[in-house]
Amino acid sequence: xxxxxxxxxxxxxxxxxxxxxxxxxxxxxxxxxxxxxxxxxxxxxxxxxxxxxxxxxxxxxxxxxxxxxxxxxxxxxxxxxxxxxxxxxxxxxxxxxxxxxxxxxxxxxxxxxxxxxxxxxxxxxxxxxxxxxxxxxxxxxxxxxxxxxxxxxxxxxxxxxxxxxxxxxxxxxxxxxxxxxxxxxxxxxxxxxxxxxxxxxxxxxxxxxxxxxxxxxxxxxxxxxxxxxxxxxxxxxxxxxxxxxxxxxxxxxxxxxxxxxxxxxxxxxxxxxxxxxxxxxxx
Length: 283
Description:
Blueprint: H1 3-12, E1 47-60, E2 68-81, E3 84-98, E4 101-103, E5 113-115, E6 123-129, E7 132-140, E8 146-155, E9 170-178, E10 185-195, E11 207-217, E12 222-231, E13 241-253, E14 256-265, E15 273-282
Antiparallel strand pairs: 1-2, 1-15, 2-3, 3-6, 3-7, 4-5, 7-8, 8-9, 9-10, 10-11, 11-12, 12-13, 13-14, 14-15
């Protein structure tokens, strides 16, 4: 496999700062880069677009003392012009969790799980529109590397009364870098910082997150990856999140991408298991 092909494949499956990050997962939850230039090519001036969607399921106790189950479906759109990428998405969420727990979707990293200082274990089922995310990223002209800087905002479109969102705006920034090597092996790393909106009744803090792993090109159309991720808990009363993930990405056509993800928690603040499926179609 040529170096150019490996680098182009990596860009297609690059961890992006678009949508929920899932840097805890080895395959992006974001819009897939369907026609991105390789690191040595000048950015194309034409605009490309993508419609993408996905479903996720995760469950665990997250240190709450009671089982939390959350399923969500997301749909969004992405645009690219040259080195600039933009994306917006909104999920529909169904969760069963203790009454003092807020399951907040959105942001550049993970799923913040907020809990009050009480230890309620009574579980309730809620569902509805989750928090929308609008994000942007810029691909850096780094010779021999794939790198980007990103920023985003989580909009409080989820119901605060149902415990599906905090009712506050979050802001985030992140940076990502990958280095294609011989044999289709590409180590990658990312770091991000989220300014968390402060809802009444919850002791919250801004969070730092980081991820590192390796992606392997299985062919010109498929790649697999394993990664480790760490994320501070937005709630001071809850444990930080550490997890290991595995994922596979496949190009079903020139402009159609499929991603499968799995994650296992390594800490009390992480889900016991998380599964996800992503599908993106470019035009």
